[in-house]
Write a structure and sequence with these properties.
With 479 residues, the protein is mostly beta strands. Helix content is 8%, strand content 40%.
Length: 479
């Protein structure tokens, strides 16, 4: 016994030198054959690369654990040193050195698209995008079997097998659900654990810079040949088109976000006042007939007329179709003149509807218009009297996300000018039939106006509500 008391205090640990696949939250345990002060263990301990952590007692003064303050780095080799120390009885404890390598759990760290934008559940991407799947380790490509819906994907792997790209060129617009089959593993034999899925979609996006508005701006836009191609239509949330005098249509474009330039601008009509009331916004226009002015007195909606410093005329359009306004001017008019109008945003949510009938081409004869569906962008183009509509500001054809033909009672009112002049009036408060066109499919239903000072609501034939999708919604108001 006297001899044993002269022997050094021994140390054992739960780590073997050179251990691999050590958990990233694992503790390092030390067991001493005799009591050792906790402070002495803490002072003698070090780990490289440096990791914050602490030593705590597991059992008295013989069993201790070092615990990291945060998880260790995956697939990293660490070196643990415990310098020589003395135990509570002043006997020597020989120092020791171990190395270990942490485990790696292979996984998809991110999915990105053009420009490095992150794609997550519920987000969507532009047509023709390239998705990049990024991993935390080199993967065995033939084990990584990703499907889009029920179809296998064709991935292109990087040279280091730590990322793979997928081109969506030619993929039709709409939702896409990606799922990963079991069995994917990295090149050291570790399997991807759990299940992986990504719900995204291919949808056209208008990427022009806009100014966010407190409440909607309704801009009166002419639609005669001299006004084509108008600026700023693509950024509108909703465009209402309706007949004005002489068989020419007029547009009311409604914005939650105003683009750089909008116009040209012309005068309002009876229907414009009703739209301003329903969509809780400010009506931007140039002038107003005596008949409309009289109607506005009985059906008031906030109006902003041609005002120096806000609207302006340009030289590359012919008068009177050359009055324009910038997005910043729209925002300034709202802030400086109508700041007390309550905040309001037109509700938008991508609809989930099925069982429509094919609608690749839609005609609205009352407006001399034909709409054609493009399955890649998932949007409709518009031609009117043979002219394809484009947005001059962005230099592209219009991409209409949803088309609605709204049927209602139309009246011709004698304005009493002694010359037999008439003005069109449309009922926007009683409801009626409607046709909806979305993703190349047509649906029957109806529209309602349950609140005279709230947006129109749209109902499918099966009684379910229809939400308006993000992007441009075009509504043809017809008899």
């Amino acid at each position: 016994m006297a001899y044993e008391n002269t022997l050094p205090t021994t140390l054992s640990t739960n780590l073997q030198n050179g251990a691999k696949d050590v958990p990233i939250y694992g503790r390092i345990l030390f067991t001493f054959s005799r009591p050792v002060a906790q402070a002495a263990v803490q002072a003698a301990f070090s780990i490289t690369p440096t990791v914050e952590g602490s030593v705590s007692s597991v059992s008295g003064q013989t069993d201790y654990a070092w615990s990291p303050a945060k998880q260790l780095v995956e697939l990293t080799t660490y070196t643990v040193n415990l310098k020589s120390l003395v135990d509570a009885g002043n006997r020597p404890v020989r120092g020791a050195r171990w190395t270990f390598t942490t485990i790696i759990v292979p996984r998809i760290t991110s999915v990105t698209t053009t420009g490095g934008a992150i794609v997550t559940d519920g987000s969507d991407v532009d047509p023709g995008s390239i998705l990049t799947f990024n991993f935390n380790d080199a993967i065995v490509p033939e084990t990584f079997k990703l499907t889009a819906g029920a179809s296998p994907t064709a991935l292109r792997w990087a040279g280091d097998d730590r990322s793979a790209t997928l081109s969506l060129a030619g993929v039709a617009s709409g939702p896409i659900d990606f799922t990963l089959s079991p069995g994917a593993r990295d090149q050291t034999g570790h399997f991807l654990t759990g299940t992986y899925g990504l719900s995204t979609g291919v949808y056209y996006h208008d990427h022009e810079q806009t100014v966010a508005l407190k409440y909607p701006a309704l801009v009166q836009i002419p639609n005669d040949e001299l006004a084509w191609n108008q600026d700023g239509l693509q950024a509108a949330g909703i465009v209402f088109e309706y007949l004005a005098e002489g068989g020419i249509t007029r547009l009311t474009a409604i914005y939650d976000n105003a683009p750089a330039l909008i116009g040209p601008m012309r005068s309002s009509r009876f229907i414009s006042l009703k739209l301003g009331r329903h969509y809780k916004g400010l009506l931007f226009q140039s002038g107003e007939s005596q008949a409309t002015l009289a109607r506005a007195a009985s059906d008031p909606t906030p109006q902003f007329f041609d005002t120096f410093g806000y609207q302006f005329r340009i030289d590359n359009r012919y008068a009177p179709d050359n009055l324009m306004i910038k997005g910043a001017g729209v925002n300034a008019a709202e802030s400086n003149y109508f700041s007390r109008i309550p905040a309001f945003i037109i509700p938008k949510a991508r609809p989930d509807i099925t069982n429509g009938t094919g609608a690749l081409s839609v005609s609205v004869s009352e407006h001399y218009s034909v709409y054609h569906y493009d399955p890649i962008t998932g949007t409709y183009s518009k031609t009117e009297s043979g002219h394809q509509f484009s947005d001059a500001g962005i230099g592209q054809r219009l991409h209409i996300e949803m088309l609605i033909t709204l049927h209602t009672h139309e009246s011709l009112l004698n304005i009493g000018d002694g010359h037999g002049s008439y003005i069109h009036d449309f009922n926007l408060d009683s409801g009626g039939a409607a046709d909806f066109y979305y993703k190349g499919q047509g649906y029957k239903g109806y529209w309602k106006a349950p609140d005279s000072h709230g947006p129109l609501t749209f109902i499918l034939g099966n009684g379910l509500p229809l939400t308006l999708p993000p992007g441009l919604v075009w509504i043809d108001v017809t008899a």
